[in-house]
Amino acid sequence: MGADPVEFRGLSEAVVDAERRFAAANPLSHARHLRARKVLPGGHSRQTLYYAPFPVTFVSGKDAVLTDLDGHKYLNLVGDYAAGVLGHTCEPVQRAAREVLAGGLSLGGVNSKEVELAEVISARIPSIQQIRFCNSGSEACLFSVQLARHATARPKIMVFKGCYHGAFLIYGNTDPALSIPLEVVKATYNEVEGTRRSLRSNPESIGAVIVEPMMGAAGAIPASRAFLGMLREETRRIGALLIFDEVMTSRLSPGGLQGFYGLTPDITTLGKFWGGGFPFGAYGGSREVMRYLDLGGGGTLSQGGTFNANIVTMAAGIVATRDVYTPQTCTELNALGDRLRERLNNLGRKFRVGFQATGMGGIMNTHWHNRPISNPEHVEPVNSAPRRLFQLEMMLQGYYVAQRGTFALSLPVSAGDLDGFVEATEQFITQYRDLLLPTEESSAHLGSAATKS
Ligand SMILES: Cc1ncc(COP(=O)(O)O)c(C=O)c1O
Q1: Could you check whether the bond before residue 376 is cis, i.e. omega within 30 degrees of 0?
Q2: Burial class for 300, CB neighbours closer than 10 Å (0-12, 13-18, 19+)
Q3: What is the whole-number distance in angstroms between the Cα of residue 411 and the centre of ligand 1?
Q4: Which residues face 359 on adjacent strands?
Q5: Fewer CB atoms inside 10 Å of the end CB: C or N, the chain?
Q6: Is the CB of 212 inside a 6 Å radius of any atom of ligand 1?
Q7: Whole-model pTM?
Q8: In DSSP terms, which residues pair with 134 in a beta bridge?
């Protein structure tokens, strides 16, 4: 077998057939999509959620189960791209939100909850001595980069090819027009010596290096400890600030991945689950760095944001992180993820097909080839034929999975649920084995890497 055009055509035909069955099974979602396209570009509000032929519309969620407009139920394995770690109906968090709602909205002053959430986060992630809340991970990343450039009085930042630091900081082979036009030095993720050289050749102009300790949207690609350690050492040496974007990875270990690796960044960005399911973003670091935001204390950066530290997010976030996603729960969920990844990888080996799952703990990404993946160039496009086919077939079986292959487990997902999913994956591989490529030759037909958003 190999990149035989006949086999590739077979896969494309299988996708067309799966799309036809999917559309037939979802007439109400289809109608909603057509209606939405008239008033929403593409019929949605977030590119990540779109997939062909149209995304199903969800109407409710309970624990880890979603219900769509046509009445189908799905085990949710996407976990809102890492934000939904608590599942859909975490009663203590919902109660906390209801309680603050009863106290009135938009009070327009500092509130009683923000200090408490700041204390909880600071205790969990000691490098965050002070924190500033905003409303999304995208804002947090942009603010942190601007803070670092201001603090160092240097114009450039270093980023890694294919990285995703939110809607304004995306750097692939071509940079999307929505990305902020900053002066960037691009390096290759996990490439230790090349990156070191690049930093050393820009010793006075790079103000910050922003890096995910595991690349999430790009395909759940863990960093090596040596790579992150080099970044810590070299940024100190040239006087640049090291920003860990832990918007996605902070759920992977009780103190974030920085705790796992034993590294202390200058600034950390957070998002997703820390708000208990409500819009959340934050960035924090040492007092020395954060003092620039303290105008009363001589700082020079004035940062606004009407809904920063909104009371509902703060109240939900306190309960979510202090009481529900405790260090122990975090460790258990990630152990469940490690076991799932191992079982998926065993399937690739057992059937000798190009299939693997990368990632850490409860966040992973499936790929339809078995070559080593250490940077986004090794990842097939988000809409490759095997990805599309797998997503549609799994959805038809009642498993909500992302086309790009992202998995993020949530607390209500049980080991039994995952047994069912592994079985369904095995059936998929058995059914389509002849159209998938064998282990030795398994990436030529997948095309070149694409940047995710
Ligand atoms: C690593 C990383 N940074 C930043 C963001 C942006 O966060 P948000 O979607 O809350 O703006 C994301 C979102 O997926 C992310 O994964």
Answers
A1: no
A2: exposed
A3: 21
A4: 364
A5: N
A6: yes
A7: 0.95
A8: 281
